[in-house]
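4.2 Preliminary Data

To establish feasibility before requesting continued support, the project team ran the inverse folding procedure on a target of 448 residues. The structure was first converted into the token representation described in Section 3, and no sequence information of any kind was made available to the design step. The complete token record follows.
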């Protein structure tokens, strides 16, 4: 319901699904969350209740990277004005700024511009002193956008490792354990470079559980993984490493290279972090929007993970139960979930990411009218595709079940969903709090 307990004008279930998606993305947008959490007061810069006395610092820098880094940097520049000295952020959604340099990198596979930008971020951090306040902008996508190859490892090596791991179905925790140990900036190394500066991390989390050392591979926090853990991931998923990357990890396990900083390292003596938004931020806003449309919302979980096509089956089963029996709540209802599902590539090219696989699998399973399923990546880019995800119903696969199953089996969800006019295309949104799934269960026979 709305704040005055009156539902807004009735909309179709498909329109409700899109409205919930849009509301979730908007709620997690940096302009929204930074305005809510950061302000200038008489006492200094207030961030999420903590106050930093700007008079105590000669310089105030903004450093970091990720899908939302440009938008966060823009909001900080607006708030700080001439109190801001400078900085560098790397993002794939550039923002024209006057004091902070914005470098355009690439996501999900790193590129040369990302390497150059990460090197500039490190250089600024290394030049910081005890009289510097570093505002560390760390958001989803930072693992790719802040590559900084370590030692003899090259960008080409990182590109190969990234692409190969993304196709194995490995979790983001596992993938980032590898990326942290092939990078000079991840796994707490940015904080080590900035010491003895005061470092305040402003994070937008795209990680299930908000594990700080996994968000953007944890450049500002202690690392819980090791070189041995990284090699275990490589062995577990039978990935063939480029020779330089393999030798780098082996040297780490042999003790020839320093491990990533652990919690007792001096690098973290003056580091604090604040998570400004996460998956629940988007889910709560989507739930409010569902209520505004007259639907009873249920936030199922912000921590859904596993294979996308399997997770879809469970979600469809819950929606069908609501539709058939009113359990666990009566329709009209909207069931919401977030988190991060994965895709294990088989024979296809992977045209369409986890959210499109989720949607296509849901469309194949769904045999009840009155249900609409939407699934998107909140950054607007699902996998390596141009679509954020898709919205489907029981008619999406009508008469084409064989073709749909073949597309799912070969990881070619995007072409099928495009032909069915089911794709959701938002363009890069400027934020990233991972997946957002919306199941609209109507109490009438019509779904459109």
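Position-by-position output of the design step:
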């Amino acid at each position: 319901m709305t704040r005055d307990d009156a539902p807004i004008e009735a909309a179709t279930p498909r329109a409700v699904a899109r409205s919930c998606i849009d509301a979730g993305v908007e709620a997690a947008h940096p302009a929204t969350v930074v305005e809510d959490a950061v302000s200038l007061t008489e006492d200094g810069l207030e961030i999420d209740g903590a106050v930093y006395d700007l008079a105590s610092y000669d310089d105030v820098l903004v450093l970091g990277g990720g899908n939302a880094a440009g938008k966060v940097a823009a909001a900080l520049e607006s708030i700080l004005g001439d109190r801001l000295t400078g900085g560098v952020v790397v993002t794939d959604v550039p923002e024209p700024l006057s004091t902070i340099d914005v470098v355009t990198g690439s996501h999900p596979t790193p590129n040369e511009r990302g390497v150059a930008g990460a090197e500039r971020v490190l250089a600024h951090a290394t030049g910081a002193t005890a009289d510097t306040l570093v505002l560390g902008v760390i958001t989803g996508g930072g693992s790719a956008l802040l590559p900084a190859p370590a030692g003899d490892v090259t960008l080409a090596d990182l590109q190969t490792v990234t692409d190969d791991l993304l196709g194995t179905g490995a979790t983001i925790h596992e993938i980032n354990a590898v990326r942290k140990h092939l990078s000079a900036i991840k796994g707490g190394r940015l904080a080590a470079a900035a010491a003895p500066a005061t470092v305040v991390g402003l994070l937008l989390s795209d990680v299930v559980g908000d594990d700080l050392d996994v968000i953007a591979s944890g450049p500002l926090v202690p690392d819980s993984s090791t070189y041995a853990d990284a090699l275990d991931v490589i062995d577990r998923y039978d990935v063939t490493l480029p020779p330089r990357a393999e030798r780098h990890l082996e040297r780490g396990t042999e003790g020839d290279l320093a491990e990533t900083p652990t919690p007792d390292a001096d690098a973290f003596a003056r580091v604090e972090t604040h998570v400004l938004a996460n998956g629940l931020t988007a889910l709560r806003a989507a739930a409010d929007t569902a209520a505004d449309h007259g639907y009873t919302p249920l936030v199922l979980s912000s921590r859904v993970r596993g294979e996308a096509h399997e997770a879809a089956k469970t979600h469809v089963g819950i929606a069908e139960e609501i539709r058939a029996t009113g359990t666990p709540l009566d329709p009209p209802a909207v069931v919401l979930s977030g988190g991060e599902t994965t895709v294990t590539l088989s024979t296809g090219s992977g045209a369409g990411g986890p959210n499109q696989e989720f949607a296509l699998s849901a469309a194949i399973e769904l045999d009840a009218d009155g249900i609409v399923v939407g699934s998107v990546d909140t950054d607007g880019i699902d996998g390596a595709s141009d679509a954020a995800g898709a919205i489907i119903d029981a008619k999406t696969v009508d008469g084409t079940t064989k073709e749909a199953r073949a597309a799912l089996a070969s990881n070619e969800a995007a072409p099928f969903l495009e032909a069915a006019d089911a794709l959701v295309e938002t363009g890069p949104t400027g934020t990233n709090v991972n997946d957002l799934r919306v199941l609209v269960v109507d109490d009438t026979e019509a779904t459109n």
